[in-house]
From TrEMBL:
InterPro entries cross-referenced by the UniProt entry: PABS, PABS_CS, SAM-dependent_MTases_sf, Spermi_synthase, Spermidine_synt_N, Spermidine_synt_N_sf
Active site annotation, chain numbering: 166
Source organism of this protein record: Thermoflexus hugenholtzii JAD2
Keyword terms: Polyamine biosynthesis, Spermidine biosynthesis, Transferase
CDD domains listed in its UniProt record: AdoMet_MTases
Database matches in SUPFAM superfamilies: S-adenosyl-L-methionine-dependent methyltransferases (SSF53335)
Gene that this sequence comes from: speE
Name of the protein described by the UniProt record: Polyamine aminopropyltransferase
Function: Catalyzes the irreversible transfer of a propylamine group from the amino donor S-adenosylmethioninamine (decarboxy-AdoMet) to putrescine (1,4-diaminobutane) to yield spermidine.
NCBIfam families listed in its UniProt record: PRK00811.1
PROSITE patterns for this protein: PABS_1, PABS_2
């Protein structure tokens, strides 16, 4: 798991910095520390960064910043929502900041968005310091549950049109049980026949442990459950090596096809190039062969 650290409180004239250490080390200048605490589950910080605006940081890892969050949230939500002909019930696992719910609520067909977030302090701090995201929880269509996403699926009946997995980094200990075959089977069982599952896959190219095990395992497990398992790469300035990827899965409908009659055009996502988002997938699937060649 990538680690990050805030420098000690600076002396007069010095600059406070935050460093995230992963396959590379990125150092950010900090204007203000809006929140910094350890909950019962993880370290949480909300920082105001020079050039990037407010940032949510969990266990030393940047989840998103104000300046580039639309790449992540739009790439996770809209390909799945646009591929479904009539998304009414949406389940978000994670998503305690409210950004994924915000995007799902843009569709007039949506009747309910259930958000299951394991750490209630993330929700509380984002409500206080990031209302531009967390205000989505005030929408009457949103049902917020503080609890374990896996346990929720094990204990609840019912099905969803779209399930969106907005967890921590797959290498983070807190998220590991959301990236195994048993959990993926639970997701498949709770999807309608036309349902879509979308999840993020971390950086697939430069992180040896992830490339060597988790990415092929995730793809293989999903392929046992879904007819379509499609990959979307995405640029992201504040993620390690500026490269990230997602998967969109379906038991019956090709996610590469737009079916939603209410097109959404965002800052990054556009239905006009929906199919193009999936075009580099063959490269993603060849990444295993690149291991050890550079």
């Amino acid at each position: 798991m990538a680690q990050g650290a805030l420098a000690e409180e600076p002396f007069e004239g010095m600059t406070l910095t935050f460093a995230e250490e992963s396959t590379i080390t990125a150092v950010y200048q900090v204007r203000r520390v809006l929140a910094h605490e350890r909950s019962s589950l993880q370290e949480i910080a909300i920082l105001e960064l020079e050039n990037w605006g407010k940032a949510l940081v969990l266990d030393g890892v940047i989840q998103f910043t104000q300046r580039d969050e639309f790449f992540y949230h739009e790439s996770l939500v809209h390909p799945a929502m646009m591929a479904h002909p009539n998304p009414r019930r949406v389940l978000v696992i994670g998503g305690g900041d409210g950004g994924v719910a915000r995007e799902a609520l843009r569709y007039p067909t949506v009747e309910e968005v259930t958000v299951v977030e394991v750490d209630g302090r993330v929700v509380e701090l984002c409500r206080q310091h990031m209302p531009e995201f967390a205000s989505s929880f005030d929408d009457p269509r949103v049902r917020l549950i503080i609890g374990n996403g896996r346990s929720f699926l094990e204990e609840q009946a019912g099905s969803y049109d779209v399930i969106l997995l907005d967890s921590n980094d797959p290498l983070a200990e807190l998220a590991r049980r959301l990236f195994d075959p048993v959990f993926f089977r639970l997701c498949a069982e709770h999807l309608t026949d036309e349902g879509m599952l979308a999840l993020h896959l971390s950086e697939s190219l430069f992180r040896e442990g992830y490339l060597g095990y988790e990415a092929p395992m995730v793809r293989g497990a999903l392929s046992q459950l879904f007819r379509y398992v499609e990959t979307i790469p995405m640029p992201y300035s504040t993620y390690p090596c500026n490269w990230w990827s997602f998967m969109v899965c379906s038991k019956g409908l090709d996610p590469r096809v737009v079916r939603n009659p209410h097109p959404f055009r965002g800052r990054y996502y556009d239905p006009a190039y929906h199919a193009w988002l999936f075009a580099p997938a063959a490269f993603i699937e060849r990444l295993e062969m690149l291991k050890g060649t550079f």
